[in-house]
Amino acid sequence: MRRALVTGGVSGLGAACTTRLRADGVQVFTLDVYPDVDFTVDITDAGAVYDISGGRATY
């Protein structure tokens, strides 16, 4: 199965990408600072991104 992680997935281009990827059968996980996404996180916070990655994020 193909998977994608889309930042800003709640509006604008992020939402459009999420819709298109899901229509193509991709399992999509969304991140945003707004609610109603898979992971509510501020991607400018390296510690928060590290936490949601299960400790796999590197910089």
Helix amount = 25-40%
Task: State the strand order across the main sheet.
Answer: 1-2-3
Per DSSP, the total helix count is 2
Proportion of residues in β-strands? 15-25%
Radius of gyration from the alpha-carbon trace, in angstroms: 12 Å
Question: Based on DSSP secondary structure assignment, what is the total number of beta strands?
Answer: 3
- The total number of structural domains is 1
What is the element string, with H for helices and E for strands?
EHEEH
Coarse structural class: alpha/beta
Instruction: Output mean pLDDT.
Output: 90
Task: Write up what this structure looks like.
- There is one protein chain.
- By secondary structure, this protein is of the alpha/beta class.
- 32% of the residues lie in helices and 22% in strands.
- The chain has one domain (6-52).
- It contains 2 helices and 3 strands, in the order E-H-E-E-H.
- A 3-stranded parallel beta sheet has the order 1-2-3, covered by helices on one side.
